[in-house]
Amino acid sequence: MHSAAMQQRDAPPATGPLSDPGQQRDTKGMGFCGVVLLLMSYALIILTFPFSLCLCIKVVAEYERAVIFRLGRILEGGAKGPGLFIIVPCMDMIRKVDLRTVTFDVPPQEVLTKDSVTVAVDAVVYYRIYNPVIAVTNVEDADRSTRLLAATTLRNVLGTKNLSEILSERESISNMMQESLDDATDPWGVKVERVEVKDVRLPVQLQRAMAAEAEAAREARAKVIAAEGEQKASRALKEAADVINESPFALQLRYLQTLNTISAEKNSTIIFPLPLEILAHFMHKS
């Protein structure tokens, strides 16, 4: 049943009679005065023909529908259009409804989150009118009502979230707002297609605190990485010392390499190589 209702809402607006029994109009019961006025209007149109065509012929665009009220009642057949149709002047009143998707910005809302943090959040809402007759008869101003409801829904949804959830779960918050708005605007003939959270502005003090916390976390990670590097370097030095200790010639080659490196630099220091045999004698003696 729910899927059938969603398919009906997503279908293009029909120009036939209203499907809701509560919205049906008895357009034939105008009464004696109504019939007399209608006949007089037809007679006036005939007498002033063809000049009366300027007032009788109306045209609506492809993206519009016209809801016609005759003596306060909606004409049988629902909304008219697109294209050309004829009305009776002095008896018919026309309300044009735009069926295109409308976009509006929700003003920044001051919201107190679940963890007692005040943030300013704004959003964008996309909606369209899927039933022109209901949008005209069930609500005074569908656009204004949808805008006010979007601002209220934004505050209600964000009030149940923590600051971390607002910053990291924007997509889920947008989906919750879209479902809530869609259910609330269904009796108005409005279909909310999409809701997007644009920006979350934090207080200055909270921004500084979060920046300090992030800086401290980066410094801690840097110290951990430096300590791990020192640990790996000490292990490599220990392995190199074990290799040199196993081969006396390796120590002599390393000694000569160090002398070569020092002598390559431009300095005034004079280096006198010391035989390794003397050092080995002192090392064995110790």
TrEMBL record:
InterPro entries in UniProt: Band-7_stomatin-like (IPR043202), Band_7 (IPR001107), Band_7/SPFH_dom_sf (IPR036013), Band_7/stomatin-like_CS (IPR018080), Stomatin_HflK_fam (IPR001972)
Main location: membrane
Region annotation Disordered: where it falls in the sequence: 1-23
GO cellular component, one term: plasma membrane
UniProtKB keywords: Membrane, Transmembrane, Transmembrane helix
Subcellular location: Membrane
Signal peptide interval: none
Band domain ranges (all copies): 55-214
Stretches that traverse the bilayer: 32-53
Record carries keyword Transmembrane: yes
Domain of life assignment: Eukaryota
Family (UniProt): Belongs to the band 7/mec-2 family.
Family annotation (PANTHER family): AT06885P-RELATED (PTHR10264:SF19), BAND 7 PROTEIN-RELATED (PTHR10264)
Protein name per Swiss-Prot or TrEMBL: Band 7 domain-containing protein
